[in-house]
User: Fold this.
Amino acid sequence: MAGVFINYRTGDGTEAAVLLDEQLKGVFGPENVFRDRRGTAPGEHFPPHLWRTLESCTVLLVLIGRNWLSLCDDTGRRRIDVPGDYVHDEICAALTWCRTVIPVLMDGAALPTEKELPDDIAELTERQFMHLRVPYAHLDLPVLTDELRKHVPASPPVSPSPAAPAAGGAPQMSGFTFGDGNAVNFGSGEATSYTNSAVSHGGTAIYTENADGENDGENDGESEGKSDGKSDGTNGGTS
Assistant:
């Protein structure tokens, strides 16, 4: 998995982590983006799976909110200082393995200083950060995504399959309609015609196309084609 690993603190960035995950998996594919709540199956042995995934990733995104550093456990100790804290340990491992580590400052949060961090992750302060403002995610997410494209290949877009025509039935509509309410059918093997469509300029245009693909009419605003004058549809949409 040459992808993105999302590191976040529960209680300080969960919403942003979900938002970021949804954006990135649509670009790079869900198999190339890891967020713990989505990327771990029920019953799976969590720690080995997490470390294997982190080791195979290219980029670690460290989501830092305003309470990221100050959140404490039940004893009043900062969670980032508690042995076994996943946020701390994931950052430490990624720095040790020389991964690309990007601090993502959420909603105006400041990057902690070197003195505020445990010694083994103090190097985080030397990494160039980016911003993610949840209310302005429509502006910030594209910037983040473009930066990640430099490290992670995007998944190829999936093209929708064209609908097959109904066997033995009437010709199927192609979905193209014109301003006068006439629609055009394609691929049916039958003659195709439209009159007075939005593609004509200055008068009624009559167009006929036989099954062999020849155009029998001219779009000059006055000419008549060799059609029987029948329209193939009455959908009132526009092209």
